[in-house]
Design brief:
The protein is of the alpha/beta class. The chain is built from ten helices and ten strands. The protein has a seven-stranded mixed β-sheet with strand order 6-2-1-7-8-10-9. The chain has a three-stranded antiparallel β-sheet with strand order 3-5-4. The longest helix has 15 residues. The N and C termini lie far apart (54 Å).
Length: 273
């Protein structure tokens, strides 16, 4: 199937609409990646013309919700990159265990798999009782799903393998109850999470944290926006706190890099001053 032609100018107009009508600022997102996703949705929904597409997004709240779901990227799994989680388990979280209370910000939490993974690590290190995970995302729909703590049962084999590779010693199935085709994770894990909307582009710092995780989000932003978001994280992180990014992301180009020291081979940096 031949994809429809949408010009860069039309995408810019659409981004301007979103900012004006909804306050959603996508202008700093990687243009090529964003355009691909706009074209995909436009083609998928067989909209007869670009003017109709714009009208529908601006005037139909249900369709706008669909648009945000499709444009924001929600690819995640539990204990994704197990070596990363092993580093959290063996080095980062035990060090934070000396604090009277641990505040963790998970930015771009998507449907919540990473939040539950971290909660499991905290529980196994006997730190869950004195921890709070602030899990935020731009997309309200994925937050609603995350708050339910239910994932496809068919994914549990892969998640269990990831968990074991991350250093997990327990029976992974002890953390959830099977309900038909879904796995519902324990309320004890959920009770230490606060899910809320937060726009990394336009919203400010809202607390001070010892650990901030934002993995595989910055890759969708242009360089200026990456600078802005990294400075937001720096403002939100306590001295000697940790910042964790995705495998293809770095702070090396950033103005904040001089304050941080990288931890071993993982994409985790410690704030030194």
């Amino acid at each position: 199937m031949e994809l429809p032609l949408i010009s860069d100018e039309q995408v810019e107009i659409l981004l301007s609409d979103l900012l004006e009508h909804y306050g959603y600022d996508f202008t700093g997102y990687s243009k090529a990646s964003l355009k691909r996703r706009v074209i995909r949705l436009y083609s998928l929904d067989k909209i007869p013309g670009f003017a109709e597409f714009r009208y529908k997004i601006i005037n139909d709240n249900v369709y706008f919700k669909r648009f945000v779901e499709q444009i924001t990227v929600n690819v995640t799994e539990m204990f994704r990159d197990p070596v990363f989680f092993k580093t959290l388990r063996d080095i980062v979280l035990p060090r934070l265990g000396t604090y009277p209370f641990i505040r963790i910000w998970l930015a771009g939490c998507s449907t919540g798999e990473e939040a539950y993974s971290i909660a499991i690590l905290l529980k196994e290190l006997n730190l869950l009782h004195k921890s709070l995970i602030y899990a935020t995302d731009l997309n309200p729909s994925v937050l609603e799903k995350a708050g339910q703590g239910m994932f496809q049962l068919s994914y549990m084999k892969q998640y269990s393998e990831n968990y074991i590779l991350s250093g997990g010693k327990n029976d992974f199935s002890s953390y959830y109850t099977a309900k038909y085709s879904l796995a519902k994770f324990d309320d004890e894990l959920r009770s230490k999470m606060i899910f809320s909307t937060h726009n990394l582009v336009s919203d400010h710092s809202f607390n001070e944290f010892q650990l901030i995780l934002c993995r595989n989000v910055l890759i969708y932003f242009d360089r200026d926006l990456q600078h802005k978001v990294l400075e937001l994280f720096d403002d939100s992180l306590e001295d000697l706190g940790y910042l964790a990014l995705g495998t293809k992301e770095t702070i090396d180009f950033s103005r904040i890099s001089r304050k941080y020291k990288r931890l071993q081979s993982e994409k985790i940096w410690r704030k030194t001053n």
